[in-house]
Amino acid sequence: xxxxxxxxxxxxxxxxxxxxxxxxxxxxxxxxxxxxxxxxxxxxxxxxxxxxxxxxxxxxxxxxxxxxxxxxxxxxxxxxxxxxxxxxxxxxxxxxxxxxxxxxxxxxxxxxxxxxxxxxxxxxxxxxxxxxxxxxxxxxxxxxxxxxxxxxxxxxxxxxxxxxxxxxxxxxxxxxxxxxxxxxxxxxxxxxxxxxxxxxxxxxxxxxxxxxxxxxxxxxxxxxxxxxxxxxxxxxxxxxxxxxxxxxxxxxxxxxxxxxxxxxxxxxxxxxxxxxxxxxxxxxxxxxxxxxxxxxxxxxxxxxxxxxxxxxxxx
Length: 315
Ligand SMILES: [Zn+2]
Prior knowledge:
Layout: E1 2-8, E2 12-19, E3 24-31, H1 38-55, E4 63-70, E5 73-75, E6 80-84, E7 89-92, H2 94-101, E8 106-110, H3 111-122, E9 131-136, E10 140-146, E11 149-151, H4 182-185, H5 187-200, H6 205-209, H7 219-227, H8 231-255, E12 259-263, H9 271-281, E13 294-297, H10 304-311
Parallel strand pairs: 1-4, 4-8, 9-12, 12-13
Antiparallel strand pairs: 1-2, 2-3, 5-6, 6-7, 9-10, 10-11
Helix pairs in contact: 1-2, 3-10, 5-8, 7-8, 8-9
Bound molecules: zinc ion.
Zinc ion binds next to loops.
């Protein structure tokens, strides 16, 4: 059986035909043009779906469903997207607008949730029934898989791992609360701490690497310098790892999943980050004599969203 997956982002739309094992058979992309009315964006999504089906020599009649990953939340009871900040969408009747243009069942999920689902079928957590995926990017997203199925909660607002509160009264978050996990575990947090570090330690290698301009700081610069032994950068890196490990331990205590998968831009730091996180988690685990989640890096990269969205139609 074949499925179409769509990864809808603030700047680009990716779509592809995917088989039931998560193999991509064709792929295409388009500009989102999110400044336009939502109807125009949805018309382009539908047209892109038809194009990738043609490219995979698959008549629409042989496609079981279309799945769409969105950078927001979805209400499965109404088929509407109540809110999607990156697209500026409020209460968009997404499923009915799609079905006006495509004669196929439409499934929708949060982008991090579907990426985690993809990893659990075709990626690093393949074959496991329970996993938690954490995207470490500008913010922090989460994807929970329980019993082999993506879990978004009773109201479609679950798995917002980035907004678990790690520090009461801590750093202010875009969501209005303070001390959210993503204020400490995102690339944004690394940049904030690295800028503080170069203000206090202008001799740090980090300042030279951003051409003397802290406005050009990024997480890669900070972690690369840490890897090379720069003291200020190591402090930033260790603080980051500690925050991430505390969040991961809370997730383990709540869900006890088989695997925790780290994805997103920050996870590109690879084994340097992974090894440090594994070490930092060990002493924090509650039941030390029992087994606990293995921590792994995501494997599917930029295609995870598309693959996971497609597989939403697998039920
Ligand atoms: Zn928050």
